[in-house]
Structures are given as C-alpha cells and as structure tokens.
From TrEMBL:
<keyword id="KW-0804">Transcription</keyword>
<keyword id="KW-0678">Repressor</keyword>
<dbReference type="GO" id="GO:0003700">
    <property type="term" value="F:DNA-binding transcription factor activity"/>
</dbReference>
<dbReference type="InterPro" id="IPR010982">
    <property type="entry name" value="Lambda_DNA-bd_dom_sf"/>
</dbReference>
<feature type="domain" description="HTH lacI-type">
    <location>
        <begin position="2"/>
        <end position="56"/>
    </location>
</feature>
<dbReference type="GO" id="GO:0000976">
    <property type="term" value="F:transcription cis-regulatory region binding"/>
</dbReference>
<dbReference type="InterPro" id="IPR028082">
    <property type="entry name" value="Peripla_BP_I"/>
</dbReference>
<dbReference type="InterPro" id="IPR001761">
    <property type="entry name" value="Peripla_BP/Lac1_sug-bd_dom"/>
</dbReference>
<protein>
    <submittedName>
        <fullName>Transcriptional regulator</fullName>
    </submittedName>
</protein>
<dbReference type="InterPro" id="IPR000843">
    <property type="entry name" value="HTH_LacI"/>
</dbReference>
<keyword id="KW-0805">Transcription regulation</keyword>
<dbReference type="Pfam" id="PF00356">
    <property type="entry name" value="LacI"/>
</dbReference>
<dbReference type="Pfam" id="PF00532">
    <property type="entry name" value="Peripla_BP_1"/>
</dbReference>
<keyword id="KW-0238">DNA-binding</keyword>
Amino acid sequence: MASLKDVAKLANVSLMTVSRALNSPERLKPETLARVQAAIEETNYVPDLSAKKIRGAHATPNTIGVLALDTVTTPFSVEITLSIEETARAHGWNSFVVNMFSDDSPDAIVDLLLSHRPDGIIYTTMGLRQVPLPAKLLTLPCVLANCESLHDPVASYIPDDEQGQYTAVQALLAAGYRRPLCLHLPANHLATVRRRQGLERACREAGIDPDTLA
C-alpha cells in the first residue's frame, strides 16, 4: 500500500507539503496542490485514520477488513460475516466489517475500508456472483467469499452448487423419481446456471434427457 513518502516522491514535494494537501489544501498554491492530488491518485494512496488518533495510539495489528456487499439482507450472508469474525478471533486476529450496497460508490467504500489499515481483506457478497474488484483492494492480500472475481485471479471460496445439485438429483433418481423438479433463482443467476449443470449431468448419467424436464 502506498505511503505518504511515495506520494511526496512522485510529486517531488516534501512530506509536509503532502500533509498540507490532505489537511489544509487552501495553504498550497493551486499548481502544487494539483501535483500532489495527481500523485495521490496515481499511487492509490489512502490517508491512514489510525495516524490521526491521539499520540501514543497505534493501529491494531493482525486485523482483517471485511467488505460486505448487500449481505445484511439474508441470514446466510450474515452467517458468513459472523463466521469470519469468530474464526479470526479464535486465531488471535481482529476483524471489522464495512457494509456496501449495490448503489454505493465502490471507490468511496474501499477508501473507507483501507483507511483503517487492515492487514488483509475478505470480500463477501449476498448470493453467488461475479464481481469487478476495485484496483485498490488488490494492494493488500485479498480473498473472496461467496463470490468470484470478474477479471482478476483472486482466490475465492464458494458453494459447490453444481456438485450439490448433482448429488440431490442422484438421490431422487435412486429413489425411483424420473422427473426431478428443481426450483431456482432467476435463470441468469450464477448459482442457477451451475445447479442446472448438476441436474443435467445427473440426468444424462441416468439416461434421461434433461431438456424434457421443466
């Protein structure tokens, strides 16, 4: 993650000048301020809120920041964030959650998250989906829970919807049912697509044309 020194070096100014740009921009010449702001944007620098605490305070070590997209709306998603907190605590780590909603500005929320200087980030969502990752998130170790990265190669932990559906349909077929009916989310939902794949695999193995099913 970029530091104040990185910004100062790129803008070719002193640390004091960068500090003034952040805290008292009116004290700088417009051209100097513009140069510092350009350097801040280029380095993805985020001000450190922990540095603004009273003298002698320090940033909390071993902290995981959880970015939670729309997770307050379903019990399953809430369980994910609670499990993260419990597991982190069991290993001597702290965690905090920053909630984000679909109509929020991702950059602003990510800046808020990073301003607390976490050691790593877990990005979790309500419902399995593919998400674009703000570049600033990737300045720290980052893993995804219940979602996948749309572009970047980032580790993700997701339910195996295809295998789960396959196993469920196999059980129905073994019990003698030949036309399993599966109720899903909307057809374009990522979980629906993979569950349909599981259903089709189980049916084909049993000699059933899945296209004849509802």
